[in-house]
Amino acid sequence: MAPPLPARFITLEGGEGAGKTTLARRLADALASVGLPVLRTREPGGSPGAEALRGLMLHGRVAWDPVAEAMLMFAARREHVARTIRPALDAGIWVICDRFADSTLAYQCYGHGLDAAVWHKLADVALEGFAPDATLVLDVPLETGMARALARALPDRFERLGHEFHGRVRDAFRAIAADNPRRCVLLDAGQTPEAVFAGATAALRDRLGITL
Ligand code: TMP
Questions:
Q1: Residue 54 Cα, ligand 1 centroid: separation in angstroms?
Q2: Ligand 1 site residues, Cβ closer than 6 angstroms
Q3: Whether this model's pTM surpasses 0.85
Q4: Residue 82's pLDDT band (boundaries 50, 70, 90)?
């Protein structure tokens, strides 16, 4: 019998309404159906402290200083990694996470103009080299994504930021995927959910050696 694959950390990234949640659910089901334990989680959030910060950042009334906002994202992320993600991986549980550090680079740096050097410093302190094993970047035209997101719920603080902001975020995710070809794959999320799922499983087979 082949030795069991080590548990892996998979992140899903992309703009609003790209279909990350649907894909995360399908991937979790697929991993479970081949007998692998799996945890689905999200950012900001995924642990008690990080969920409390999520409420402040997404639905609070504070207009954060850009560096402070990035620090809060990384504070939430460090809690999430320490309390949820690492313990799961150590226990042999695969982790699928809706957003991770790439989102801070896309939203706070490309979107809000924060210097990428700040992102690198915060990532060094908060993550100490910890990174996803594979990242699926979902790319969707802005109109499609916003229509999907707004059909789902009232807009949160980030969804209200406007077309130009979200254009920069989309460009950011495409650049991040291009800059990290071993970790990231860019998927056309304007396709059907079935086609996106097929692209995702092909990418995970290539990168992690898992057949779903
Ligand atoms: P979502 O759960 O709908 O993806 O919402 C999370 C929002 O938070 C989304 O608009 C992106 C934003 N966000 C950042 O700005 N920076 C980050 O680091 C993360 C994780 C999310």
A1: 9
A2: 16, 42-44, 58, 73, 99, 103-104, 107-108, 158
A3: yes
A4: very high
